User: Fold these one by one.
Assistant:
Number 1:
Amino acid sequence: MSVLFILLFIVSFLLGMGLIVWRLINIYRKKPTEIKGISFGKLIIGTAIVFVISIIGATATNQSTSSSAEIKTVVAITKKQRQAVSTDKVDEKERSADLAKKYLAAKAASESLATIQSSIAEKDAAAVSISELASSKASVASEEAVSRSAAASSSQAAAQALSLANSQSASTAAASRQAAATAAAASAPATSAPTNNGDIVTGKQGTIIGNINSKIYHVPGQAGYHMNSANARYFNTEQEAINAGYRKALR
C-alpha cells in the first residue's frame, strides 16, 4: 500500500508540474488552456486532490508502518521479556538444583564429620583405658619390685646374720680349742713338748685350721706341719675359710 501511494504522489506531482509548465507556455503563446472541454483550473484542482490524497495515503501508510513497527517492537520486547522470564526461571531452577546439591554435600560432610568425631572419641576412650591399664600394671610391677627388693634385703640380712653367727660360733669354737690346747700344753710334762717350731700339727686336729699369718687353711687328711697355736684359726667348713679370705693348702 505504501508503494502505491508513493507512486500516486509522484505521478500527481509530476502531472501538476507539467500542467503548470503547459499553462505558462500557453500564456506565453496566448493559446487556450482547455483540453477537450476541461479547463486548466479543473486540471489543477484534480491534480491537487490526487496530490493531497497521495500525501494523506503516504502519511497513513507511514503511520500504519510506524504502528506496525511499534507493534513489532512491542511484540519483540514482549518476546524478549518472555525469553528473559523463561531464562530467569531456568536460572532459578538451576540455582535451586545447585543449592540442593550444595545442601546435600554439606549434609554428607556434616555426617562424615560426626562419624570422624565419634571415631576419635572412641579411640580417645580406648587410649584412656589402655593408659589406665598400663598405669595399673606399672603400679603392680612397682609393688612387686618393692616386694622383691624387700624380700632380697631380708634374705641378704638373714644371710649376713647367719654368716656372722657362724663366724662368731667358729671364732668361739676356735678360741675354746686354742684355750684347751694351751691348757693341755701347760699341763703336759716338759718331755712331751714338741722339739720343732709350733705346738700343733695341722693334719692331726680333726678340723680345718688356718694360719693367720699365711692365710692358708689345711683340712684333715692333708700333710700337716707344726704351727703355733697362737697363729691358728679354726673353721667349720671350707666355704667359711674361703669367705674369711683363706686359700687351701697345696698338700
Number 2:
Amino acid sequence: MKFLQEKNKFIATILAFAVIPMSGLATDIYLPSMPSMATEFKLPESSIQITLTLFLISYGVTQFFAGSVVDSYGRYRVSNISLGLFVLSFLITAFTKDIMVIYAMRILQGVLSGFAVVSKRAFFVDVYEGEKRKHYLSIMTIVWSVGPIIAPFIGGYLQKLFGWQSNFYVLAGYSLILLILELLFSGETLKVKKPFQFYFVLKEYDLMFRTKDFFYGMLMCGVSYAMVIFFNLCGAFIIEHKMGYSEVIAGYVSLILGFAWMAGGFLGKALIKKAFLPKIRYANFIQIFLILMMIFCSYFINNIYTLVAFAFVIHVTAGFIFNNYFAYCIGRFPNSAGVAGGLTGGVAFIITSAISYGIVAIIKPEIQLQVAEGYFVLGILGLIILSITKLRKAHI
C-alpha cells in the first residue's frame, strides 16, 4: 500500500479539494442540456429529469455506508477506484444512444460520488488536527458549494458549442486527470483500518432515527435542498423551451442561483450565535412570504427577470436553513460525527430527490406561477416540520 508522503501533503490536499466538488459537477453541468437531450432522444421532459433524481438517490443511499467502507478498506484505494470508474461511466454516457444505459450510468455515478466525497472528507480528518483541521473542513464546505455554481455555467457554453455529450467528455477528462495526479502524488492516510461492522452502524442509525430533533433536522435539510433541485429540474425547460432563451442564458441563471445558495450558507455562518430555532422559524416565515409575493406578482408580471429574482431570494432562505440544520445534525452526535454526517446527507438527498421530482411530475411547471406553487408546497412542508419540532434546550 502506498502511503502519503509528507513532502506531497500540500499537493494531495489540493487534489482532495479538486475531488470534493465532483458530486456538484456531475449533477449540474448538464442542466442546460436537458431540453436538447429530451429533443434528441424524442422523450418527454420527465424522462430526462429523472436522470438527476436517480443520481441524487444513489448518492444519498451510498452515504449511509460509505464511511464504514473507507474506514475498512482505506481512503486512497476507494477514491482511486471511484475516479477510474468515473472515467468509464462518463464516456459510456456520452457515447450511448440508449436512455436506459444513461439511467444505469447515472446511478453508478451517484454511488461513485458518494464514495469519492466521503473518502476526501476523511482525508482532512486523517491529515490535519486542531485548528488546521477546522480550517480545512471549513474551506471544504465552501469548495463543495462551488461545483453546483460553476457547473451549469460551463455546461451552457459546452451545450451551445459542442452538444450535450461534451458535458460528459469534460467530466471524464477531469476525472482522468485527477486519477493520474492522485497516483503520482497522493497516498493512503488511514493509519488503522477498522473491520466493517454493519451491526454497529445499524445500532447507531437506530439511535439517531429515534432522536426527534435530529430526525426532524434531516427532514428540514431534505426539504430545503429540494427547493434548489426543484428549480434545476424544470428551470432549463422553462427558460429555453417556454421563454425562448439559449442554453447559455440557462447556465447563467443556474450560476446566479448557485450564488444565492452560497449566500444563504454564509448568512447562516454569520448568524451562528443567534438562538437556533427562532432564526430558523423566521427564515421559514420570510420564505413563505416571498413565495406568496411570487404567486401574487405572477398574475401581473411573468418574465425571466422576475422568475430569477424571486428564485434568488427564496434560495437564499433555503440555503440559510440547510446550512444551519446540516451543521446542527452533524454536531448532534459528536462521538459519531462520521455516521451522523453520512446519515444526514443520505436521508437529505433521498428526500430531496423524491419530493422535488414528485412535485415536478404533478405540477409540470411551465410558467412562473407554477414554479411558485411548487415552492409553496415545499415552504408549507418546512412549516409543518418546524411546527412539530421540539428541540431540547440543551442541544440548541
Number 3:
Amino acid sequence: MKGKHNILTLFATSFMSFMQLLDASIVNVAIPSLTKDLHVPMNRAEWIVSVYLIMICMLLLFWGRMADQIGYIKIFQTGTIFFTLGSFICALSPSLYLLLFGRIIQGIGASMSMATNIGIIAMIFPMSQRGRAYGINSIIAQLGNISGPGLGGLILGVLSWHWIFIINIPIGIIVYIYGRFMFPKDKKRTLEIAYDWPGLVTYAIAIATFFVSIYMGQDIGFSNRNVIVTFVVSLIVWLVFFYIEEHTESPLINLHIFKIPRLTLSLVSALLVFSIGYYANVIMPFYLTDFRSLSTSFTGLIMMAIPFANVIAAPIAGYFTDKYNAATVSIVNLFVYAVPLIFLVWFSGHVSLVIFTIMLLLLGIGNGGFQNNPMIMGYAPQEYQGIAGSLAALFRNLGMGIGVSLATTSLYYGMSVQSHHQVNYYPQNHPSWFLSGMHFAYFTALVLLIVSVILVYMIIRINRKETRQKAEQKRA
C-alpha cells in the first residue's frame, strides 16, 4: 500500500513539473493569436514567455535554500497555490499587462515547486529506488517542456488561447488537495532562517537587467544608450554577485563547484542545447501558421513530432549511456542534431511537409539523446550532489530564457537586414523577410551547436586522460 502511495506522490509532483514546464513552452504557439487579440507587436508578446522563465531563473535557488530550512512540502504546496492562482489570472486577462502579472505569479509558483520536487522524491523513496524515481520525474517533466507547442496548437485548433491557462486550474487544485492529505509531513526545521540575502538580491538584479537589456534592444535597437547602460549595469552587478559569493560563509551558489572542469563544461553545454531547443518553440509556430498558412491544430500536430521523437530517443540514449558513457552518447546525438539545423539554415520556404516533419523528428532525437543530467550529476562529487541538481535545473531554465532571447533577436535581426529597417513583428506582406530571418536565426543555433560539440569533446578528452592515468597507476 505504501508503495502505491509513493508512486501516486511521485506522479503528483512530476505532473506539477510537467504542467509548469509545459507553460514555459505552450504559450509560444499562441503568440500569433495573442498579438492579434491583444493588439501588441510580436516582440512585446514574447514577454509573455520570457517573464515566466525570468522569474523561475531568479527564484529557483532561493526557494531551494528556503526549503532546506522551512520544509519541502510547505514550499511545494505554496508554489502549487501560486501557480494555480497565476493560471486563473492569465485565463481571465483582457490585456497584456494583466497577463504579464499572471505570468509573474505563475513563475513564482513554478520556481517553488521546481525547487522542491526532487527533495520530496528523496523523502518518500529509499536510496535503492531513487534513481528510477528521478528518471520518471525527469522524463515526465521534460515531456512538458518539449510538447508545449504541439499541445498548444491542438488546443488552439478548437478553443481560444485562454484555455492553455484554464487547463492548469483543475490540475493544480487536485495536486494541492492530494498533497494536503497524502504528502509526508516535513521534518522539524530550524526556526531561525539563515540566508545569503545580499547574494540573492544581486543575483536577481543581474538576471533581470540582463534579460531586460536584450528585450529593450529588440524593441528600440541595441545601439540605444538605455540598452547599453542596462547591459553595463547587469555586468557590474554580476561582478558584485561573484565577489559576495566568494566572501560569504553560506553562499547562494558555492562557486568552488565550477572548479570541476567536466561539471562546468556539462552545465554550459546543457545550457546551450536547451537554448537551441527553444528556437523551434519560438520560430516554428510563425513559420507553420503564418508563412505556410496552416491551421493551429495542424501546426500542433506537426510539432508533436519533436516530443514524439524525444520520448523514443531518451531511453535508448540512456541505455547506451549505461553501456558506454554520457559524453560519448551526447556528442553522437549532437551530430544528429546538426542535420536538421543545417537543413533549416538553407531550406526553401515551401519544402514538402513530409521532409520538414522528418527534420523535426531529427530535432527531437538530437535533443532527447543529449545526456545532460547524467553528465552533470555523474561528474559532481558526492558532497556537491545537492547543489549540482539545483544548478542543473537553473541552467536548464536559463537555457530556455536565453533561447527565447537569442531566437527572437536573431530572427528580428535577419528580417531587419533583409528589409533595410527595424522589424520586430511578422511581416505579413513580405514572407521572404521572415524566411531570411529564420535562416539567420538557425545559423546562430548552428554556431551554438558547434560550441556545444567542442565542449563535450573537451569532456571526452578529460575522460580519456583520466582513463590513461588510472591504467598507468595499475601497471605501476
Number 4:
Amino acid sequence: MSKHKSTKIVSAVIVSSVLLSGCGLLGGEKKEQIDPPKTVTYTEDNGTATVVETAASEKNGEEVAEKGVMTELYLVDKNGYVVPQSIDLPKTESVAKQAVEYLVQNGPVTEMLPNGFAAVIPADTAVSVDIKEKVATVNFSKEFKNYKPEDEMKIVQSITWTLTQFDSIDKVKLKMNGHELTEMPVGGMALSKSGLTRDSGINMDTSEVVDITNTRALTVYYLGGEEGSYYYVPVTKRISNEESDNISAVVEELAKGPAYSSNLLSEFVSDVALLDKPVVEDGKVTLNFNESIFNKAEDKIVSKHILNSLVLSLTEQKGIESVAVTVNGKAELVNDKGEKLSEPVTRPENVNTGSF
C-alpha cells in the first residue's frame, strides 16, 4: 500500500498563504500562490485615525493565529465499517499521538464525531507513541483491554490506518503497559511481529472467496451513508492471483458492486467495462470505458460518485497519483456539475470531509 497523499506537520498561520487547486474534481495537481489577505487595523495619533494594512500571516513579526491539522481518523459507522473521517484537530507537535488519542471513546473527539460514528479505543485509555525508522510503537494503558472481542479487528484497523496516513509511518506495533503485544489482549487476534500495515486490508469482504490461498488483497471504495450525507468506505476484497493487473481488477470490482447484504452502495452499473488495457505513465493512469460509465449518456455526464470511487480506489495502488477517463477514446466528458473533465483527477488530501 503506497502513501497516496502527503500529510505533513507544519507550524503555520491561518492565512499565511492561500492555495488554489486545479486539475481535478477531488483536488488539484497544480497550485498557484496568491497574495494573502490583509488584516486592517486602526490606530489613533492625536485624534487622527490611521489605517494600517498588515499581512494576516504576521504582526510585528509574530504569528497571529495558528492553523489546525486536518487529520483522517478511522472511526466506526453505524453499520460497523471502519471509515476515514477528516477532522480539523488542534495544532500540536505530535500529530501521531494526538490522532490516536482522538480514537479513544469519551475522549476529546466526542464533540466532533459525525452523526452515526464512534471511536473505537476503550474509554480512559492513556496513549504514547514512539516513531523510529518509520515504525510507530503505540503504548496503551491497562484500560486498552476493556473492549468486546468482536471489536478487536476494528480496533486494529482503526489504529493502523489512522497512523499510516503519515509519511513518517509505514508500520505500527502495539504495547500495553510497556509490554509488546504479539496478540490482542481479549480475543487473541494475532499481531504481526514485523508490524501492522495497510497490506492486511480494512473492512474485509471474503464473501465470494472459496480458496483464499490463491488470492491477493485489493481495496476499493463504495458509498456508505444516506442520500445527502454519503461518505466513502474502503473495502478490501480478495481477488484471484490469475487477475492480470490490479487496475483492471479495481474497475471490475467497482462494476460488480458491494455485497448485497453490506448496506453499501455503488453508482456503477454491472456492464461498465474497459475497452482497452489501462495505460500508466508518470503516475497517471488513463482508462478508456464503454458508454455505460455515463449516468447521462446523451449529455456525456459521469457522476461525481463514480469518479470519486474510481480515484480513491486506484490511488491506493502503488505509483498511481491521478486518473484520466475517456469514453470510446474521447475525453469529451463532464461531471454532474457540468464541468469539463479535461484534466486528470487526483486524490483529495483529505477523505470524507463532508464537502464532496
